[in-house]
Each structure stands twice: as structure tokens, then as C-alpha cells.
From TrEMBL:
Keywords: DNA-binding, Transcription, Transcription regulation
Name of the protein: RpiR family transcriptional regulator
Organism: Fulvimonas soli
Domain SIS: 122-257
Any GO BP annotation: carbohydrate derivative metabolic process
Occurrences of domain HTH rpiR-type (ranges): 1-77
Keyword Transcription regulation found: yes
GO molecular function: carbohydrate derivative binding; DNA binding; DNA-binding transcription factor activity
């Protein structure tokens, strides 16, 4: 596992001091090679021993071992871009092979960060709410695309979701939520005020709030009963957004598969609906 992925996956279990070190490394990975353990400690206003203990807790022999491992990971990720820049043909290869590899890496990082038991608990909560209550789905902008597709997949399993791109309507819908209902909010940065208000309103109704956001500290993630997170990092903003979209879709697809494979009646309903759709689409 990449050292940066390992740091991201274990950040939530770290102490306050350890999280400060982790965040500094994640945000300044390219510069880490220029920092000694003492310089890193000085930059954060902590003791050098705290830096050493942090690296050992992650399973490294010491700070130089961590720094070397991070440097290797950055070199591997940067190799594709450097090769692409060497020639026009290389640029085309980057668009295909390089982007594919980065998407695979983002999906793999996201899989490692979200524990299987956490994903299963979300699937079970959605299944229970689909039988005894209601499943609310919420997203805005590009995230709404994922929410809309997930709503269709749930409907095909016999789980009728409460979904609308109209935030006023969703506010009204959530006002009738009850204990046992589930709200799934997909929000890349988890900081949109409107989504936060609706989520808070839902929590007041004692429903289960599930959030899907980037693997960063954000208001939505902080108030969630279950927080699913997406890891998607690249220096180029236009690539980073593609990685986020791909990893988010993969995460929701995993939830859908768990709902299909864990419940025979849901799977049977899916097959019936697929056949009905096929009849509609046939000329």
C-alpha cells in the first residue's frame, strides 16, 4: 500500500498531533524530501520525537524510511506524465493508459479507506429502510448525476427512493422523515450550506445519515452516522475531478452489488425489472 494511502486510511484513528503531521505530509508530499525530521517538527511546532513515533506507528523503521517511501510513490505517479510529455504520441498514451491507471489507483485507494464492514452496514441500513421506511437520496451539481443513477438502481431492486434535484422539495420531503429512514448525501467537498441544513434537519428526525465526500475534514462528514470517503488526488484539477467522479461511481457500484448479492428477493426483483426494461426498449 502506498504510504500516502496508508496515512489517509488511518488518519481518523490518529491523535490530534498525529493528524497534524499526517495532514502536513499529505498536503506537502512533494516537499517532504527537503525536510529533516527536526525541520518538520519545527514547522508544526511539535517535538522531533513525535515525528519519529508517528513514522514508527505507521510501520516504518524511521523518518528517513517514510520519506524515501513517499518519494518513490510520487516518482511512480509522476512517471506517466513525464513519459507523455516526451512526444506527441506520449501525450495520446497519457490520455488513455495514464488516465486509466490513475482512475484504477483512485478506486483502489477508495476501496482500502472504506472498510468492508462499513460498506456492509450501509447496505444493510438501506435494505432495512427500503422494507420498513424510506431511503432519501441527495446531491447537487455533478454529484446529482451519481445520485440519480443510484436512485434508478435502487428502484430496480424494489427500493423506491425519495429523490429530487429540487432542494426545496427535498427539504419538504425530509421534514416527514422518521427513525429508521436513511438519507444518503453525495457531496464532493461536503461543505454546501443547503445540503448541510437538510442533513441536519434529517438528523433531528432521528434518521440514519450516510455521507459520501472526499477524504477530507468537512461539515457533512462530521455530522454523519456513517461516512464513506473518496480518495482522488492529482496535481491537475481537471484530472482530479475525473478521478473523483470515477472513484465515487465505483464506491456506489459496490453498494449496489452488496444489495444484489446479499438479498435473494432483491436480486429476483432486479431480474424481473431488467426483463421489463428490455421489452420496453425492443423495437
Amino acid at each position: 500500500m502506498s504510504p500516502l494511502v496508508k496515512i489517509r486510511s488511518e488518519r481518523d484513528q490518529m491523535s490530534a498531533v498525529e493528524r497534524r503531521i499526517a495532514d502536513f505530509i499529505l498536503e506537502n508530499a512533494q516537499l517532504l524530501r527537503d525536510y529533516s525530521s527536526q525541520q518538520l517538527a519545527n514547522a508544526l511546532g511539535i517535538s522531533q520525537s513525535s515525528v519519529v513515533k508517528f513514522t514508527q506507528k505507521l510501520g516504518f523503521k524511521g523518518y528517513p524510511d517514510l520519506k524515501y517511501s513517499v518519494g518513490e510513490a510520487i516518482a511512480r505517479n509522476g512517471g506517466d506524465a513525464a513519459q507523455a510529455a516526451a512526444s506527441p504520441a506520449g501525450a495520446a498514451d497519457e490520455t488513455a493508459d495514464g488516465l486509466w491507471r490513475r482512475k484504477c489507483a483512485a478506486e483502489e485507494e477508495t476501496r482500502l479507506i472504506n472498510r468492508p464492514e462499513t460498506l456492509r452496514s450501509v447496505a444493510e441500513a438501506i435494505d432495512r429502510a427500503g422494507r420498513q421506511g424510506r431511503v432519501f437520496l441527495l446531491g447537487m451539481g455533478d454529484d446529482d448525476i451519481h445520485v440519480r443513477a443510484f436512485a434508478l438502481r435502487l428502484a430496480m431492486l424494489g427500493i423506491l427512493p425519495v429523490y429530487s434535484f429540487d432542494m426545496v422539495r427535498m427539504t419538504t420531503n425530509v421534514a416527514s422523515a422518521q427513525s429508521g429512514d436513511v438519507l444518503v448525501v453525495v457531496s464532493e467537498f461536503g461543505s454546501h450550506v443547503t445540503l448541510g441544513r437538510i442533513a441536519r434537519q434529517f438528523r433531528e428526525r432521528r434518521g440514519t445519515l450516510v455521507t459520501v465526500t472526499r477524504h477530507t475534514a468537512n461539515p457533512l462528514r462530521a455530522m454523519a452516522d456513517v461516512a464513506l470517503v473518496v480518495s482522488a488526488h492529482d496535481e491537475r484539477p481537471y484530472i482530479q475531478s475525473l478521478l473523483y467522479q470515477s472513484a465515487t461511481q465505483h464506491l456506489l457500484d459496490r453498494l449496489f452489488v452488496l444489495l444484489c448479492e446479499g438479498h435473494d428477493d432483491r436480486h429476483a426483483q432486479l431480474l424481473v425489472n431488467l426483463e421489463r426494461i428490455q421489452h420496453v426498449l425492443e423495437p
